[in-house]
Amino acid sequence: MVSSAAACAGPKDGGAEGGAGGDQPRRGGTLTVLNAEPQTDFDPARLYTSGGGNVPSLVFRTLTTRNREDGAAGTEVVPDLATDTGRPNKDATVWTYTLKEGLKYEDGTPITSADVKYGIERSFAAELSGGAPYLRDWLIGGDTYQGPFKAGADGEKGKGLASIVVPDDRTIVFKLRKPEGEFPYLATQTQFTPVPKDRDTGTRYEERPLSSGPYRVAENENDGERLVLKRNPHWDEKTDPERKAYPDTIDVRSGLDPAVINQRLSTGSGADASAVTTDTNLGPAELARIADDKELAGRVGTGRFGYVNYLAFNPKVKPFDDIAVRKAISYAVNRTSVINAAGGSALAEPATTFLPEQKAFGHTAYDHFPAGKTGDPDKARQLLKKAGHQNLTITLTHSTEQNRQTSPEVATAVQEALKKAGITVELQGLESNAFNERRWSAQKAPGFFLSRWGADWPSGAPFLAPIFDGRQIVEDGSNYNHAQLDDPAVNNEIDEINKLTDLDAAAERWGALDRRIGERALDVPLFHPVYKRLYGKNVKNVVISDWTGVLDISQVSVK
């Protein structure tokens, strides 16, 4: 996932005890969600989510979903509409699912496997674009299918994908063009939400989608700026052990200034006492103030999402074609100053591996260019001198957006560290859209730039494949393989791991591959972000998994 983020505050060790303890969760009341970004395009075909999303997961159920538990336990994929996480054939090219009995929409009509098939097919329509791209790549015929609204080559409109088969009302079979052992993770995406064909209103479906989850959309103002969710009377908790759905109403208010959100959560007046945020972090100054207030400190959730911030090299641009230059920069970087620029140790943790430090991703500890907490400029100078690079001047491209990740503060910290190694760094700041266009371009990518990557699900696959699989280099479009690495051995290992349906075994091999690629110094991992978020004083049952890193509103209870 490019960012989300999706994509995307705490596990039990992260300070969420104030919300998780005390009174037992109870049914009833209104939960208010205060967010900066509106929940736009509220159509399961158009949403780019992982694990079903946060607010979307209250309305849209999928074949599988994330385990709604704190910390590492929350990285597991579990059944949702389906009876299990899927049954693969021998080589994981065919996956079969059976729907649970008694599933109903908000109007009481039954949910069928044909509805799941149609929900997926409509996500291929150009007018409903925005969701994850995997289905186009994985399903046989997905690369040419244009959705059910356009006529096919034979002139028949509404024709479905032959690679999705529904032999009866409760069975659905997916035929893939290559082995994909992680298909159960993909089945958590909202594109797997059932949509009855006779209720589809195309681009207007987002205004009044049919609920399969515990809540229905009662109001949707200004394209998701305000969403009011009420109970779905036909949701049966016996078929859905994951979502607790304690509140009667969930009122999502967006378009708010982050400082206002944190102030309202801190003060907790009126409805704000029963409020949370799913997208607004606390900043360094706010954390400093909260540290002196025991009550507020007890209402800070801490989460970790699979994300890495890094320095990217494009070896097609000199002098970054020379591995000695890339290694020298790797030694010279001062991660302490970078973390300070990112908001401090409470909001960022140093990284020497590309994969996040979580078991689900296959994290394998390594540091190929050990330089301590503050860098090793002497080692960097030695490498440059030996390679014939003295008085080196390079350009570092960054965003002008004040996000403390790819922003001027982080770029300046890198600049100052490299100066001690005799490297002059000229900073090139670009407006956010221009910056993203440059860094994701195979033709125009800078030689040296700040970047970041987040996983679509907790595994090494959506982390390493888009970044290092040579077959995913896109010449005309968004290219995420910044190093434009096309190594047959790496490509082959990615294929071999993708065949594995034993996710623990796959994780181990993703970690080993990360270590091997790391030796090439194609990037410099800088830090993994930490999320710190306030929640209201009447909020109970705080659950924050390592899948999302943020409070799961399907678990929350209010007084």
From TrEMBL:
Top-level taxonomic group: Bacteria
Biased composition (Gly residues): 12-22
InterPro entries linked: Peptide/Ni-bd (IPR030678), SBP_5 (IPR039424), SBP_5_dom (IPR000914)
UniProt-annotated stretches for the region Disordered: 1-49
CDD domains named among the record's database cross-references: PBP2_clavulanate_OppA2
Chain ranges of the Solute-binding protein family domain: 76-471
Protein name, UniProt field: ABC transporter substrate-binding protein
Organism: Streptomyces katsurahamanus
Organismal lineage: Bacteria, Bacillati, Actinomycetota, Actinomycetes, Kitasatosporales
